[in-house]
Amino acid sequence: MRTTMNVRIRRKIGKAAVTLAMLLLGIGFLLPFIWMLSASVKPEIDVFKYPIQWIPVKWQFFENYREVWVGDHPFALYYWNSIKVSVVTTIVSVFVSAMAAFAFSHVEFRGRKLLFGVVLMTFMVPSYSIMVPQFMIFRWLDLFDSHLGLIMLGAFSALGTFMLRQFFMGLHKDYLDAAFIDGAGTFTTFVRIALPLVRPALATYAILRFIWTWNDYANPLIFLRSDRLMTVQIGIQKFASESGAFYSLIMAGTVSAILPLLIIFIFGQKQVIEGIALGGVKG
Amino acid sequence: MQGNEVQQQQALPKLKRKQREEIAGYVLAGPMLLGLFIFTVIPTLISLVLSFTEWSFIADLQKMKFVGLNNFKQLFDDQVFLTSMRNNLILLLVVPVQLIVSLVLAVVIERYVYGKGLFKVMFFMPYISSMVAVAIVFQLLFHPSYGPVNETLRSLGIANPPKWLADLHYALPSVMIILIWVGIGFCMVVYMAALNAIPKDLYESADIDGAGVWTRFRRITLPLVTPTTFFLLVTGLISSFKSFDVIKVLTEGGPSYSTSVVTYYLYTTAFENLKTGYASSIAWMLFGCVLLITLIQLYGQKKWVHY
Fold it and tell me: Which of A27, A85, A189, B238 is least surrounded by CB atoms within 10 angstroms?
């Protein structure tokens, strides 16, 4: 009896020790972020001081962030552009993807297999491979240098159709058939029955799409030109290359760019992590 | 006669219903299909045609010259392209390192640690952060003279630490370190889900047989997560071929092309040198690489993965 008690206590101590070790490892892993955060609230001359002042000796939080947000660079505008593009892209993408996913999983129509094959194939084309013709089409359709174009590129991605189709396939056919028999049309069944049932999946996809759009760098780089339309990712890069040696301000900019994602991630981490683990999706 | 009529009457709404469903199908799938056609299918076809031409999109369509396979031939004599391709192949090494580290982390966190959720969030954070922000931070961390990395190395007694991103030989490894750091969380989370799916009694019976930690890992865990490993390997290889942001922000392919990759060369050829035809042939080489990995996946799934 005593020995089993001992074993159990020893196990617990062992687990605590491993936890502590992993905690140290985790902090070490996050040191780049901790350094960024600390540099963003320091006066410029302290940024590269060695030994590193992890906790700033002199704080310059307000000055740095005020300079970034209302200084010479229209950072607030970049921010607003990013919010606008990311929110609209996410909403459009969730709707269009859910509709297509439902059609490809529960509605019978001619050519369904073939069309789904096409969707599958588009999934394999790397976006960088088609940048040039996309650019040409954007010029023809007058979508170049507009948020609308950027939104459409993000919204029409096959990934959402795949991911959500997976979840729709998990719905019981009988359940939906019952609605059909009750005289509900396809649309009613979709809106009233199927959509509410896959709500967690919609939330997961929405969060992922928001993160991907927010972090997107290549598309705004190529398909936008006017400074007043630029998103945060382009903004901080411009800021970093134009403000030269003001590293504390650059770090305040990067912190501001990461912050909304961090907030979304903390609130929606269950959805994000489960969605990624289940669907195994990669943006 | 009478029976037939009744049958027809019953069949009529049924037929209508079928048609209505059909229309609903097209309406529901329509927007996505239309979008994919305009923004992906048509561009893919245009890109294929352009890869056989010599043309610049700022010029008139009449100036387009068909040159057959010349672009592709030229690619194999193009030192910058060959260097970029070689760098892409070196970058593939990121994936196995990521897999090993993240599997070990996943096993330790899943089984031997209190507060799993916290660790998941910690290791996942770099993955949700934008590559641009990460690249800018690492640029400062790796700064050759005052960066904290080199200051620390110096204080540890290394007189001449490498110049990292500014050094011809260290630039690509520096990029690889960043890519590994960013991707570990993703692999770890997927591995943890796979570990969760392994039945607990397998380990219990191994315990009874007196199997040690290592034996259990090698005999139970490793074989049972092979499908996941395979999936992560394939998605990892593909996404490493698509690295662009980190190179554009961090090094612009330099110093002297030591970090140039295919996507970056494609970008500069298309949008800075405005060689549309040539860029399209690079685009198809990239597509070819991704397709090759996908085909290996389809083939390998049957052969190497033991479910």
Answer: A27
